[in-house]
Amino acid sequence: MPSTKTIAVAMSGGVDSSAVAAMLRAEGHNVVGLTMQLWNQRRLAGHEGMPESVPGRCCSLDDVYDARRVAETIGIPHYVVNQEDRFERDVVRPFVQEYLSGRTPIPCSLCNNHLKFDQLLIVAQQIGADSLATGHYARVAFDELSGRWLLKLPVDVAKDQTYFLFGLTQDQLSKTIFPLGGMTKPEVRDLARSYGLALADKPDSQEICFVPGGDYKNFIDAYLAEDGDALPDTAGELVTSDGRVIGEHAGIHNFTVGQRKGLGVATGSPLYVLEIKGDARQVVVGNQEDLYSKTLRAGKVNLISVGAIEEPMTVEVKIRHRHHAATATIEKISDDEVLVTFAEAQRAITPGQAAVFYKDDVVVGGGWIV
Amino acid sequence: MRRVYLDNNATTPVLPAVLEAMEPYFAEHFGNASSIHHHGQETRAAVERAREAVALLVGCRASEIVLTSGGTEGDNLAIFGLLSSEMRRSGLVREGDHVISSTIEHHAVLNSCKQLESEGCSVTYVHCDARGLIDPDDVRRAVRPNTKLITIMMANNETGVLQPVEAIGKIAAEADVYFHTDAVQAAGKVPIDVNAIGCDLLSISGHKMQAPQGVGALYVRKGTRLQPLFHGGRHERSRRAGTENVPGIVGLGKAAELAKEGLASGDVRRMADLRARLESSLLGKIESCGVNGAGAPRVPNTTNIYFDYVEGEPLVIALDLKGLAVSTGAACSSGALEPSHVLTAMGLSGDRARASLRFSLGKQNTSEDVDFALRLIPETISRLRELSPVYNKEAFST
Fold first, then answer.
1. CA angle at residue A336 from A331 to A340, to 5 degrees?
2. Interface of B with A in 186-205 (CB under 8 A)
3. What is the Cα–Cα distance from A57 to A63, expressed in whole angstroms?
4. Is A301 helix (H, G, I), strand (E, B) or coil?
5. Which stretch of DSSP H or E encloses residue B381?
6. What is the rounded end-to-end Cα distance, in angstroms, of chain B?
7. Cβ(B127)–Cβ(B173) under 8 Å?
8. Maximum CA pair distance of chain B?
9. pLDDT tens digits for chain A (370 residues)?
10. CB 3.0-4.6 Å disulfide test: which of A278, A304, B177, B195 passes with A102?
């Protein structure tokens, strides 16, 4: 056997991962396509508020079909790996529980941490692959000086997905390839076209893959109804930050920090959700300026470019995917907890989202906002 | 790359002699078997010869064979054809009907029973024991005055376990209940005699016995009324409308003839010897594994083995990438694999069911094929186990 590398490609049926498979194949590697079956889109179809069927969504049979067609076009073996049980346990259920506890979760990060770079990477190694390639826009590099694997911003910063990848361990990074890190999206589409891939113009997926139409409230209702559980009643009071009750709400999962619309109370000035108190079922509202805060605590911290934060460190911090990174100091509170102090107060710091720390184009690490 | 195919319970390659027999029926003898003229007569004769060969394989009269598109159609025609017909005759609504089946049936039967339930029928699913065997006494106990049909398979597709169909046939006869058996995985591997079994309906499929995909047959005991599923011309004695799939039927006939010969000539015994060597060598070379269905009578070509601390899915992929085709269980429409309902019905844990592989031999397999599998499987399993978090944890703790 020639000493070419065997690379498994996580193929979602979208343009990016399809282009990755085609590129690696053209470079002469042994490429094996793997598509994870994560969620049965028909499962909650027809529940109140849920569409009957959703064509062209992630994990749908259409996407599996697209991935298989690409594999056939470029001439690589392709397999579907069923991870529905783990996806429900590690992503869907925590997603629902987070909302019901008054937090705003990021399922994509959970999926990356628990499925794509954990289970799928194990499967890739088990089937004899040296590494796993995905269509993420990010870069991996080995730093000789520190002896650590680095996660870095992609060339196309508008497509940057490092925010969702902060949980990758050194071992995972050492076996991961992001071939699109040096390319722009239009270049990727051109490349897909040049390989004759029919899906070169397939639209990007934007929503959470298992929530059709993006309406997560209906999804949570349907998910709980399916279990036979009625929706746990999280209805409660709308209160001001000094504790004054000014109204009622139908359930805390309907709110997210920073939200303005849909509070159902009329007052002289616009009101915003400041905080969601899960235990007390209270939604705290107030003025726009009360939304700003200078500090946050990040838990379950994963560090990438450094082994530990011994001294306070000045970094740029992103508190949501579309956030413009802001200067802050990070310091260790405990082994996996970090205190983030911003130079300037930030709007709507939201529990359940991630705080990801950057130093120039390198991801220092990140954690979950508590 | 060398490729070895040990997934013959999924489908089998068409035998060269079968292909040869079919070949003239595409372009040369192309007639519609219902036509009056020469062309029609030619193909009619071919269809009837094939029917006789199938009848000979299962021990019935040619007129009792309905040619179908395969096992699923045969199962559906038996179940719905009979219950619709019963319903019409007795004038009863389906609410009153009761059917006995088992938890280890193929989905063609299992989902047909689920459909009957949704139409108001009640169905008892008899459980199997840890060996994958149905106890005839459980079937006897399940019989009610309004039981219309017993449908229990002859050989299980995943484990190869042969069910006590003769005993069930006696129970059905005593209770005066119709008995259907899905014999798709038995045909060509063990002798079939519908009179010894005492069944009224028995389905077989061409592509599991080295005829092509898309053809099969249903034995319907003389006097059994069936409401057809398809409405149209008066083909198949008005039990199955539609122009005959003549090349497929000719292939089925030839395969039936060869299957009958193979059972007599020792072809099947040779397959049984290969299976025995594959099974005992794997058990000898690999630790923490065992045969699912051990201790039960089985068809000679199938062995289903669990390899603890391994997931069947990556194992199948890893073996396929090295050229060995085997399977974990029933494939669903997306190509993803669910843990087997048969193995879980036998009491296997989800982990062990997912750690199980099915090896099924065909008449084309050689001793070298088994050697190839025996070289490949142990090393692949060690690699998977080395990478398994569960295996490492348990190995560490002991």
1. 30
2. none
3. 7
4. strand
5. helix B367-386
6. 40
7. no
8. 79
9. 445 789 999 999 999 999 999 999 999 999 999 999 888 776 776 666 666 555 444 456 678 889 999 999 999 999 999 888 889 999 999 999 888 888 989 998 889 988 899 999 999 999 999 999 999 999 999 999 999 999 999 999 999 999 999 999 999 999 999 999 999 999 999 999 999 988 888 887 767 888 877 788 888 888 888 876 666 778 899 999 888 998 888 888 888 899 887 776 666 778 899 999 988 899 999 988 999 999 999 999 999 999 999 999 999 999 999 899 999 999 999 989 999 999 999 999 999 999 999 999 999 999 999 9
10. A278
Q: Which of B169, B164, B163, B159 is nearest to B201 (CA)?
A: B169
Task: Give CA angle at A48 (A90, A281), nearest 5°.
Answer: 60
Is B45 at the interface with chain A, CB within 8 A? Answer: no
B317 phi/psi in degrees, rounded to 5: -65, -45
Cα–Cα distance, B356 to B261 (Å, whole number): 33
Distance CA A11, CA A73 (A): 14
Nearest CA-CA partner of B275 in B355, B374, B177, B132: B374
Sequence-distant (6+) residues with CB within 8 A of B284 are none
Q: Please report which helix (H) or strand (E) contains residue A294, including its range.
A: strand A292-303
Residue B333 has pLDDT above 50, yes or no: no
Residue of B nearest to A60 (CA): B334
Contacts of B176 (CB under 8 A, 6+ apart): none
Q: Between the CA of residue B386 and those of A176, A202, A307, A364, B129, what are the distances in Å?
A: 20, 40, 27, 31, 33
> What tokens appear for B51 in the block?
């029917």
CA distance B65 to B385: 50
Interface-testing mutation among B1, B3, B313, with chain A (most A C-beta atoms within 10 A): B313
The predicted pLDDT at position B393 comes to: 66
CB-based burial label for B74 (10 Å; 0-12, 13-18, 19+): buried
Q: Which residues of B87-125 are buried (b: 16+ CB within 10 A; e: fewer)?
A: beeeeeebeebbbbbbebbbebbbebbeebeeeebebbb
* Number of residues in chain A: 370
Interface residue B334 vs chain A (CB under 8 A): yes
Q: How far is the alpha carbon of A169 from chain B, nearest alpha carbon, in Å?
A: 16
Residue A53's pLDDT is: 52
Q: How far apart (Å, rounded) are the C-alpha atoms in residues B247 and B24? A: 8
Closest of B362, B312, B3, B365 to residue B185, by C-alpha: B362
pLDDT at A2 (0 to 100) = 47
A145-199 tens-digit pLDDT: 999 999 999 999 999 999 999 999 999 999 999 999 999 999 999 999 999 988 8
C-alpha A171/C-alpha A169 separation (Å) is 5
Residue B391 Cα distances to A84, B314, B318, B382, angstroms: 22, 15, 18, 10
A128 near B CB under 8 A: yes
Residues 6+ apart with CB under 8 A from B382: none
Residue of B nearest to A33 (CA): B317
Residue A36 is inside which H or E element, if any? strand A30-37
Quick one: which of B262, B264, B306 has its CA closest to B288?
Answer: B306
In this structure, are strands B178-182 and B147-151 parallel, antiparallel, or unpaired?
Answer: parallel
